[in-house]
Fold:
Amino acid sequence: MATTAADGALAVITGTEPALIPSARMRQVEEAFLATWPALDQKTLGSWRLGAAEGVTGRSNSVTVLGDDDLDGKALSERLDAVEAFYAARALASVVRVTALTPPALIDALRARGYRPEDASRVLVGTLPADRIRLEEARAKGWVIEDEAGEPFFSAADGTGSRTSGHRRVLEALLAKVGGAKAFISRHDEKGPLAGAYVAVHGAMLTLYNVATAERARRTGLASQMMRIAAGFGADAGADTLFLFVAAGNDPALTLYRRFGASQVYTYAYWRKEAGA
Structure:
C-alpha cells in the first residue's frame, strides 16, 4: 500500500485522497465496477452495497459506499453492526472499500472499531486509443476471444500468475452474472499461456480486469496488443471511455496504462477489521 511520492517520500494510500472527478461521476464508475465484477451474495443497506463471494477477490467481498446516508452516531453504529453480522454469518472478515465517496464520519467509526487500510489501488481513466485492433484481426493474430470465461481464459489466468488464479468455480459463477457486452482475451503458444484479460462494457464505460502476461512474454508488446484489442471491443460495444484500476506499487502496469493516455482520478483501499478488535 506504500508507494513512492514524487519527492521520494513514502506515501500511504488510504482511499481518503481527494478525487479528481466529480462525486456523481465517481458513483457512475463505482456502479460500473460493481456491475462488471459482481458478488455472488449481495445486500443493499441505503447507499452501501455489501458483497460476498467465498472470499475470492477483495471487490466481491467488501462493502462499497456510494454516498452519504447522513446517519447519526447511533444509526451509523447499527449499520456497521449489520455489516459485521453479514460477514460473520459467512465466515468472512468485515471489509469496507474506502474511496473519496466514503463519509468522514464512517472513516472515524471504522478507525474506532479497529479497521485499518490495506491493499490499495489507483483508479485510472482514459479515452479509448485510436490505434485499435478489431476482434477479427486479433483472432487472425492468434488471440482467443471468448464471450464467456472458458478454458483458454482460465488457463491464461493460472499461467500468468493472475491474482484470481485457482478460483475457477467461484469466478465462473461470478462472471456469469455479468450482463452486457464482455470478452475474455487470451493468447497461448506451444509452451503454454502468454497473456490474458477480461473486459466488459457498462454504459459508455469499458472496464478492464486481470490484465496479465507471463514472465517470459513481458516486454514483447503483448500487453499493448491486449489494450488495443480491448479498445476495439469497447468501441464496437459503444464505449468511449476506459476505466481500470492498478494495485499501488505496480509500476510496470501503471507505465503501460499511462502510455495509452490513462491517468489517475481517485484511489481506494480495503479497510479490514483487525483480529480481536
Remarks:
- The chain has two domains: 2-122+266-273, 129-239.
- Residues 2-122+266-273 form one domain.
